[in-house]
Design brief:
Blueprint lengths: L3 H20 L3 H19 L2 H11 L3 H8 L5 H4 L2 H15 L4 H14 L4 H17 L3 H14 L6 H15 L11 H8 L1
Length: about 190
């Protein structure tokens, strides 16, 4: 894996050599070198290890995805800001099965750094809403759920959002009015 700045330097050098080939009359070589420089620009914008980790996740191979992500030693140096967001997003998805605290930290970092796709951002916020709901932070969960609903423009997460809303209603349960000293029992006694 190359550093993000190193990829740009390689792309510029290859493009410069492509221009040299054009000036020498080797049009085919120039085109080939320009296409090669586009590969490095593509990998500057989309990190190769993150792409491979996404492919492993599509096959439900969490260990394989984790091994690809572990090849990125320092995300701040190797990745641009949005890629860092996806790095934390993928770690959040993988750790959501085992360590909720770690998963929440990763999803918050991904939302903070930003994600390119709205549905990925909606998924991160939906996961954060579920975690807030398990911690009984209903107001935070409601806000995150509304944000996720706004971001889900294609309706890909419609069923999950509906299920989360139903869970929130069930968690609320029937409300009980309490007496002055704070117990429902004293209220029943006072009616006798």
């Amino acid at each position: 894996m190359f550093n993000k700045n190193f990829k740009i330097i390689i792309a510029v050098l290859i493009s410069a050599y492509a221009i040299y080939e054009f000036t020498q009359g080797h049009i085919g070589n120039g085109i080939m070198y320009l296409l090669l420089s586009l590969v490095f620009i593509f990998f500057y914008l989309k990190n190769e290890f993150i792409l491979l980790a996404f492919l492993k996740l599509r096959k439900q191979d969490f260990d394989g995805a984790k091994s690809w992500l572990n090849k990125i030693k320092s995300p701040e140096a190797a990745l641009v800001k949005k890629q860092q967001g996806y790095f934390h997003y993928l770690h959040g998805i993988m750790s959501s099965q085992t360590d909720i605290g770690e998963s929440e930290k990763r999803f918050k970092k991904a939302v903070e750094l930003g994600l390119s796709m709205d549905h990925d951002l909606a998924m991160a916020k939906l996961n954060l809403a579920g975690m807030a709901l398990t911690k009984r932070k209903k107001q935070e969960a409601t806000i995150l759920l509304k944000e996720a609903e706004k971001l889900d423009k294609q309706g890909m997460l419609k069923d999950q959002i509906k299920m989360m809303k139903d869970n929130m209603k069930r968690a609320q349960g029937p409300t009980q009015h309490f007496g002055q000293n704070g117990s429902a029992r004293s209220q029943r006694r006072s009616k006798r």
